[in-house]
Design goal:
The protein is of the alpha/beta class and 335 residues long. The protein has a single domain, classed as TIM Barrel (Alpha-Beta Barrel). The strands form 2 sheets. An 8-stranded parallel beta sheet has the order 1-2-3-4-7-8-9-10. Helix 4 runs parallel beside helix 13, helix 5 runs parallel beside helix 6 and helix 6 packs parallel to helix 7.
């Protein structure tokens, strides 16, 4: 007679379930926090504000729901355009502190889900220095957030040197997001300005940082640029021409060497042309996943990223591994 097949005990079943590997969640480097008080004020002040009612009613809980849906384990909070600077020193300082405090409150509530890039109120030097101290020393932010330009001055402008020196002294991580610039609004009637101008705005500020000698003089700042660095990878041939001109003395290692130092999130650049250009320019260890939520669905970002023909190791590094190397504290969160 054949031996009876033993039934699995409840304990054995429980053990089998536990043995199933847990999927590793993505780390989102491009995730905007839009506190309602901040957004209400922005809506009243800015002609470049966002009319989407879902955006105006953003909450951390909405972010988490979307993250769970998209398989995002952790996201770094940052501001979007127009940021905290409206040409008023007192207002800029207040908005930078209020936004940081609102983000810190959400992070305290959900410490395993969010990190923080706290905004600086440039071109206000004194206010920015105070905000650096507050964000890094008291709030324990993961880094600072800057827009690509402030009042038409890109980040390599000499007037920002004192702030850059402090960021360099602290070996700070700085996240840079594009914004509108006075020089180039409504260049294509009927088209949203961010469609064309944002990629070039990022390129302008990258060129400004390198050609001014800022990245050479302050090498300890770790820069992260949004959207694959904008148009920079596609313009590398033109940019490298500066290596052999007088301005090249400001970056003696060469344009390409400076660009390879930076980190780039791939938000809104999940296509083969953009990714191929960036991967031909910088090591894949410097490319990070970004969703651009809530302006874009995190689920849609993941879907588009998954369509890229990347080998599993490269994909895993961009989605998760590279962020863990940049921010070792993530290992302690068990995410």
């Amino acid at each position: 007679m054949a031996a009876k097949k033993k039934k699995a005990t409840p304990k054995a079943k429980k053990k089998a379930v536990r043995a199933k590997p847990k999927p590793l969640g993505r780390i989102d480097l491009h995730h905007h926090f839009l506190p309602q008080k901040y957004m209400k004020g922005e809506h009243e002040r800015s002609s470049a504000t966002h009319g989407n009612t879902d955006i105006l009613s953003w909450t951390p809980e909405k972010s988490i729901a979307e993250m769970d849906k998209a398989g995002v384990a952790f996201a770094f909070a940052s501001t979007s355009t127009p940021g905290v600077w409206y040409g008023d020193v007192a207002l800029g300082r207040r908005l930078a502190r209020e936004w940081t405090d609102a983000a810190a409150e959400a992070i305290a509530k959900y410490p395993t889900r969010f990190g923080l890039f706290a905004p600086l109120p440039l071109p206000d030097t004194e206010g920015s220095l105070a905000q650096i101290s507050y964000a890094l020393d008291q709030v324990k932010a993961d880094g600072l957030g800057l827009l690509a330009n402030f009042g038409g001055k890109w980040l390599g402008d000499p007037s920002f040197a004192t702030v850059m020196a402090e960021l360099n002294r602290r070996k700070a991580t700085v996240y840079v997001h594009p914004t509108f610039t006075p020089c180039c609004t409504n260049t294509i009637p009927g088209a949203a300005m961010q469609l064309v101008e944002f990629p070039f705005e990022t390129t302008r500020t990258i060129a400004s940082l390198i050609m001014s000698g800022t990245t050479t003089k302050f090498p300890n700042i770790r820069w992260i640029f949004a959207h694959n660095g904008g148009a920079t990878p596609m313009l590398i041939g033109r940019l490298e021409e500066q290596d052999h001109r007088p301005i090249g003395k400001n970056f003696p290692a060469g344009m390409r060497a400076e660009l390879k130092k930076f980190y780039y999130d791939n938000a809104s650049a999940w296509n083969t042309s953009a990714m191929a250009a960036l991967m031909n320019l910088v090591p894949t260890s410097h490319i990070l996943f970004g969703s651009d939520y809530p302006f874009l669905s995190a689920s849609e970002a993941v879907h588009k990223f998954n369509k890229l023909k990347l080998d599993p190791a490269t994909r895993a590094a961009m989605e998760r591994g590279n962020a863990f190397k940049m921010f070792p504290r993530l290992r302690k969160l068990k995410i």
